[in-house]
Amino acid sequence: MKKHYINKYLLIIIVLYLCIILFPFIWVFITSFKPEKEIWGDGALKLIPNNPTFTHYQEIFKQNILNSLKNSLIVTFVTTIYVSFVASLAAYAIARLKFFGKNILLSLVLATSMFPQMIIVGPIYNAFEKLGLLNSYAVVLPYSSITLPVAIFILVTHFAKIPTSLEESASIDGASRLTTFFKIILPLALPGIFTAAIIVFISAWNEFLLTITLNPDYAYHTAPVAINYLKGQFQVYWGQVAAATVVVTIPTLIIVLLFQKQIISGLTSGSVKE
Amino acid sequence: MKKVFGLIIVLFSVIALVSCKKEKVIKFAVQADSTPALEAIVAEFNKGDHGYKVEIVKMPNDSNQMRDNIITSLSSGSDDYDLVSMDVVWAGQFAAAGYLEPLDELIDDADWKISDFNNGSMASGKYSGKHFSLPYFPDLGFLYYRKDLVDATDSAKLASGNYTWNDLLTMAEKYATSSINGIVFQAIQNEGLICNFNEFSDNFADIENGLKLMKAFTDATFTPNDILTYDEAATHTAFLQGKAVFARNWPYMNGMVSSDESEITPEQVGYAPLPLGGTVGGWLVGINKNTDVMEGAKEFIQFFTGPKGQKINALKGSYIPGYNELLEDEEVLEANAILNSDAFQKALQTTIARPVSPNYAELSYDLQLAIHKYLAGDATLQATLTAIEEALDE
Amino acid sequence: MDKRLGYYLVIPALLFIVAFSLLPVIQSLRLSFFDFQINDESKSNIYFSDHYNIRLSKQDVYYIDYRLTKQYLPAVKDEAVKSEVISFVAAMNKEHKVITSNLKSTDIVKIDEDTKAKIKQFNQTIKNNINNIIENDQDINDTLKEDILALANELDSTIITSNYVGLDNFVKAFKDERVWITTGITLIFTFVSVFFELILGLVLALVMNLSLKGKGFVRTASLIPWAIPTAVAALMWAYMYNADSGIVANLLAKINIIDNPSVILGSGSKALIAVITADIWKTTPYMALMLLAGLQTIQPSLYEASAIDGASKVQQFFKVTLPLLKPSILVALLFRTLDAFRVFDLIYVLTGGGPGGSTETISIYSYQVLKAQGRLGYGSVIVIFMALLVGLISFVYIKILGVKVAKEM
C373 vs B359: CB contact, 8 Å cut-off? Predict the structure, then answer.
């Protein structure tokens, strides 16, 4: 009997939690179909639009949104690929090989992941200005400062889990360290690399400060930056903002639905002692 | 064979001719215009026989982001933009940073005088004895009031502009009811506060009195309790919903009066200049000193800010012309109803600029902080005066 | 052998870290010793020695000439004054040519002491002459007089001196009220939001750890707020808080929790609460998932053992769960504290630091100084200060509370 009550309360907590978590998305989704007039005043609290419309979607596709999605995809994929690769090499070395300065390197990686991003923005801006790299896809390079440390941490944990016996038997067979790495370790580590890649993908997709600073030009805006530019001086067209929000959120939703296992494992690896 | 040969020669000469006539491109960085005016001006200019072609480079709608964008480009010495449009408060900063080409000589060459242009706009673009910009379109603060609530005597007094802030305070009290506020304006701690204070303080000439006056307004029982959180949007919402007799705002609100959102009609709305002049907002145009098409840029800026361009802007976009002569032009008056109001015309003649500073963003922040603190009752008059003086001196 | 390979494998990562993290930090440190301002031509570079801004001096000389000959002279009646002006202008142009002809540049150029003295004297002569001519003239138009004097005064800024200022920027930051105010706001934001996130996250983790139907769905839903771009989340909240059409603002006003929908983002204390609420919404699910992972590592046998000892559910929580969960809690806290302390996107999009700086955190302030005001030198000091605080927070967590960030460390 008692247990039944507990479950009831728990259910209420869970439902309430889900409502709070999902409400903004649902509300923005509804708004994106409301004509501008119903977004205002009395219509503001209405759940179902009287005259649903697609005009906001048509409007935003006339603007910069498609191009910004393209930019986001380019920037995110490039970052994910090169960061995962570079991080795999480094993580393997850290997890398996003995070399001088390993701890210094690890401290450096850790420090990088901790200090405020703002500190690197000014100097990178100056350097990019001198090199003529402002307003270009070169912005993926400094993306490494936010993604590389996380990727390395996740991968070190994963490499450490692979039994050493495999490498030992391979070296007895006469394979070199590098061959072992590519032929034996890498395939085994693929799930881990994939996990790291997903986390890198999400942080690159969400990046804001570097793009807004280094790529002020429209043509190179990523989706999170472009959507923020939809606001005007005295008035904001919330219908368009809502439509754009829906469009930009969809890729994230897909990633989350498809790869939730990897995301959770990536989030918690390195932070939980097993 | 001969025919083919001849054809080829003709073809080549045509290509040669076409490529000879290739026009040099002038890139103009400007926010998108929601009206057809900007494109019409550019199209008209591009028809001319001067060998230049203007291309619009669309800037973000958010002004701060646009400013960052332009600074990024200009500070690197690039010639990505040959002409830039700028908010009135950026001009001082851009000029001090050495981004812009001075225009006084150009103004003389065109046989113009400084006084041919909107007063406040020109003052905003002046730095160290040189003018660095010409008006794109001026924007200005003025008083809206409910004609249907205010009696004829007071209406006449308001429209003439011959009244003081104290008179306005008395009137606001007189017409306020339990459900309708006397007056609304912008007292939130942002740029709007500076624009309003500029008007209260006689263009920063009498800061002490300005502070006292403004506090009398914000403390009054007939202004909203939360007037210190009022921005432009809150102001237009209150006025359009019929919840205020007087409202200080920019011209954009006039367009909203006739929209669906409004519960009052254009017939119920009157205009008046503010007692000590209205703050200038709006936009200016300047030339990048590093442009590779200086002659073309000069040509275009003359066209754009001169009578021809400004007329198109007023006719097609209902913008207020920055070139004063057009304020009496019949076509312009016909296209832009508000210009027919004598009171509004008066307001246009008495515009004032905000302080011009190479570090305006910082100055504005310091002023906002000091003034808002005083209005909220968290600082004494003396302390506030000192803080303002210090900020202005820096 | 291992060693060599180790280095090879690490080099690419190291290069990225050096190029995009280490060098920029060093550069920030360097900039902090200079009065480097983009908005001011005489400070928009690192100058160790004296320079001369030829372009500006040419412009000013040209405009003095222009204003005097074209605008002032036509109105002058006195012949003596006329010839005085003409000869002054000629002398000025000639002298300026002499100075610039020795300098091989049209822009900003390094100068030696000798040249600097000459330029100084040149500037002074012009000022004196102009004062002589203009101050004695009663009839001159006020604006023209002001303009010409302003031009003459601007000549001073054509000489650029070293903008190395030593520790001045640090002293200034120490005295800058806004640095302390924004630090305070950042600390309030961090403390309050992390506190609520921890409590709520813990409750949710405990609930999610029970075997309930639809567990997978709850977990997926929890990932969404964390996964969407912060800028987009902030925009959604900006919409819901908006006075004219925001559902949160209007609902709260309807049930009289607030007097007016505009006060949420319009008044200081409420705006800060609004921002904190948005942050809690976005990161509580993340906190819950981190803690859930920790909970799942606790052996069920431990609960069984304590149940046999007669411990109640509450006692179990405090005696078994909490102590075993402590490492996970601390790690989650460390990550969240650092993230909250560095908050930028959320506030930049939601309030921009307003109204009136009431939600301005130190990262927003530093961005203002760096971008809007273009003061790279001073801005660097603020970000360095911020980095030091971050270091302090990490130190407290790692060394004092003993957080193990990664197994290897």
Answer: yes
Chain A contact for C401 (CB, 8 A cutoff): no
Q: What span, in angstroms and rounded, lies between the C-alpha atoms of C207 and C215? A: 10
Q: Are residues B39 and B79 in the same domain?
A: yes
At residue A229, the pLDDT reads: 79
Q: Would you say residue B352 lies in a domain?
A: no
CB contact C14 to A (< 8 Å)? yes
ipTM higher than the 0.85 cut = yes
pLDDT at A273: 36
Q: Are B322 and B285 in contact (CB under 8 A)?
A: no
Comparing alpha-carbon positions, the chain B residue that sits nearest to A129 is B76
Tell me: the pLDDT tens digits for B198-237?
Answer: 999 999 999 999 999 999 999 999 998 888 878 888 898 8
Length of chain A: 274
- Which CATH superfamily hosts domain C175-400? MetI-like (1.10.3720.10)
Whether the pLDDT of residue B358 is over 90: the answer is: no
Q: Where are the alpha helices (DSSP H) in chain B?
A: 2-20, 37-47, 63-75, 91-96, 104-109, 119-124, 152-160, 165-175, 191-200, 207-219, 232-240, 252-257, 294-305, 307-317, 330-335, 342-349, 360-375, 381-393
**For residue C407, what pLDDT band results from cuts at 50, 70 and 90?**
very low
B170-209 pLDDT, tens digit per residue, is 999 999 998 899 999 999 888 899 999 999 999 999 999 9
Minimal C-alpha gap between C152 and chain A (Å): 33
Q: What is the CATH number of the domain that holds B384?
A: 3.40.190.10
DSSP string, C358-391: TT--HHHHHHIIIIIS-BHHHHHHHHHHHHHHHH
pLDDT tens digit sequence for A210-225: 998 888 877 899 999 9
Residue contact C266–B64, C-beta within 8 A: no
CB contact under 8 A, C151 and B129: yes
User: Is the alpha carbon torsion for B150, B156, B160, B165 positive or negative?
Assistant: negative
Please write down the HEC assignment for all residues of B314-331: HHHHCCCCCEHHHHHCHH
Scan for tokens 């003095």, then name that residue. Answer: C64
Quick check: A238 pLDDT over 90? no
DSSP code per residue over A18-80? HHHHHHHHHHHHHHTTS-HHHHSGGGGG-SS-SS---HHHHHHHHTTHHHHHHHHHHHHHHHH
Residues B288 and B389 in one domain: no
8 Å CB contact of C210 and A10? yes
Q: Long-range contacts for B114-119 (Cβ within 8 Å, ≥24 apart)?
A: B114/C143, B115/B324, B116/B323, B116/B324, B116/B325, B117/B305, B117/B322, B117/B323, B117/B324, B118/B280, B118/B320, B118/B322, B118/B324, B118/B348, B118/B351, B119/B280, B119/B349, B119/B350, B119/B351, B119/B352
